[in-house]
């Protein structure tokens, strides 16, 4: 019997796709403090709601963001990051014109890089053992 895990269903699959994503402001300046922290959280929540992502955890630090999201199976990891970074920069610049002026010279809020990692319910060793033992179950 299958254990009750938070799997999602689509027309022809069951899935659970979760990512831990980290990114930073350009030059890793500490610009995400005070009200900007709260505003950015609200912006990210709205983006995730609009795109069908579910936030499991979110923390805005002065010089970087951590977000743990559950996403649909149809979205590539790079597209999740691109959506979060691009949409949030636009909205944060609208909310804080001084931040836009601060970054006017380079024209972007976020650094180009990011970290993304899958978050699974089972370990690599468990998957390997399961696959290796398949023929013994015939």
TrEMBL record:
Domain Transposase IS200-like: 14-134
Protein's GO biological process: DNA transposition
Pfam families membership: Y1_Tnp
The organism of origin for this protein: Fusicatenibacter saccharivorans
GO MF annotation: an example: DNA binding
Name of protein: IS200/IS605 family transposase
């Amino acid at each position: 019997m299958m254990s009750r895990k938070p799997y999602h269903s689509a027309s022809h699959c069951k899935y659970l796709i979760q990512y831990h994503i980290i990114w930073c402001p350009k030059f890793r300046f500490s610009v995400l403090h005070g009200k900007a922290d709260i505003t950015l959280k609200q912006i990210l929540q709205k983006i995730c709601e609009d795109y069908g992502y579910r936030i499991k955890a979110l923390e805005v630090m002065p010089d970087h963001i951590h977000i743990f999201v559950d996403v649909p199976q149809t979205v590539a990891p790079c597209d999740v990051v691109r959506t979060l970074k691009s949409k949030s920069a636009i909205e944060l610049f609208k909310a804080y014109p001084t931040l836009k002026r601060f970054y006017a010279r380079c024209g972007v809020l976020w650094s180009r890089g990011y970290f993304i990692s899958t978050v699974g319910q089972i370990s690599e060793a468990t998957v390997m053992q399961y696959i290796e033992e398949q023929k013994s179950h015939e």
